[in-house]
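Hi there, hope your week has been kind to you so far. No rush at all, and the record is pasted right below.
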Amino acid sequence: MSSVVTPPELIAAVCFGLAVLHTFSTGLFNHLAHRQPRHAGLWHLLGEVEVVFGFWAFVLFAALFWLSGQDAAVAYVEGRNFTEPLFVFVIMVIAASRPILASVTRLVDGLAGLLPNARPVAVFFLCLGLVPLLGSVITEPAAMTLSALMLRDRYFSQRLTARLRYATLGTLFVNISIGGTLSHFAAPPVLMVAGPWQWDTPFMFATFGWKAALAVLVNASVLSVVFRRELTSKGRGSETGGEPMPVAVAAIHLAFLVGVVVFAHHPVVFMGLFLFFLGYTAAYSRHQNPLILREGLLVAFFLAGLVVLGGLQQWWLQPLLTGIEPTALFFIATGLTAITDNAALTYLASLVQGVSDEFKYAIVAGAVTGGGLSIIANAPNPAGIAILKGGFEEQAVSPLKLFLAALGPTGVAVLAFLLL
């Protein structure tokens, strides 16, 4: 790789930096929408966190068009891999469908009845403890969608204190990020290296998974105990009432979900399954709630923008990941994840030849550990924001407060991966 930084790489780095700053400023734009109603539409658009990276990706495309011409700009965008944004969109919509959500809700309610805590506390613990671990089977975006929907309907709709809202969001993001490491296909940063480094599910569970599971349960337990009084007074203990969901309908939805997971690397196949799914839900609309198509598309737009902007960041990221002692690399990867997508970090690491097993462990452990520190740190995080932001003032999540709320759960993950 050439050591000379090209103008497109420099502009891409500037756009990426501005996008990160924009992410921290969404609350300001939402405030301007109230102060200047004449241009409220524009300010609301710029205040949508899911729009940020897509917006700056268009700025980068325009700059490339001006610098290199139409053919080069189009060739760059077409050369990017947009499988992950498409997959997250599809898995979000299917996982949030009423039959899937009702099935998982009944499972959580059934298990909550076996725990000694008050039911709202037990359900809260399972939403933050069990469902993130299910992400190792149904993928992290699906687990994020299900957890966020249950937390929204049972807790965030009950006017929780800001302290509990941010603590919940930070713990959810961290637990989802590390909870997908029990297998080799569910977490985006693991998926990037599993093939090149020949990591399978038994290896992942023995090396990362059991440590992550312990950290997830500790994080969920601590939060449930600390806020048990507020959860007991405000949480909705059960949502299993209403018309029973036919087993056949739930099974068909689950089959669609499994099919999309199995063909996660083949967008032509899983998009075909998704179109079939849309037809099925229209045919049996009496068993459905409105699909979260808007939320899913916004999240896909966010991730697609990240893919476009991230493609030209290798010139400064890769030197930071090489020639560093493993423990220091672990903390560098954890910190970098807060301002970059953790899958981008591990992808770059997979390109480096002749690295040690200690290097591999440090980069992946650091990438998943830092996955809850910001909205952009892990691919499923924008999905959680899209679902839960209605519970926050002006529907805006403060990046600084999220970062601070995630520090505690992140520290637990650090101890698990470094000491166990």
